[in-house]
Design a protein that fits this description.
It comes from Psychrobacillus psychrotolerans. 22% of the residues lie in helices and 0% in strands. By secondary structure, it is mainly alpha-helical. It is elongated.
C-alpha cells in the first residue's frame, strides 16, 4: 500500500507557474501555483 502512495507522488508532473508558465522548483504536491519571481509578497 505504501508503495502505491510513493509511486503516486513520484509520477506527478512538474508544476508550472500560473503567471509565466515556468516550471516551479518545489514539491509538486504543494499548494502554491506561482514561481518565486511572480510571487508578490
Amino acid at each position: 500500500m505504501l508503495e502505491n502512495v510513493i509511486e503516486f507522488f513520484r509520477n506527478l508532473p512538474a508544476k508550472k507557474c500560473a503567471t509565466c508558465g515556468d516550471t516551479i522548483e518545489e514539491q509538486h504536491e504543494c499548494y502554491g501555483n506561482h514561481c518565486d519571481k511572480c510571487t508578490k509578497l
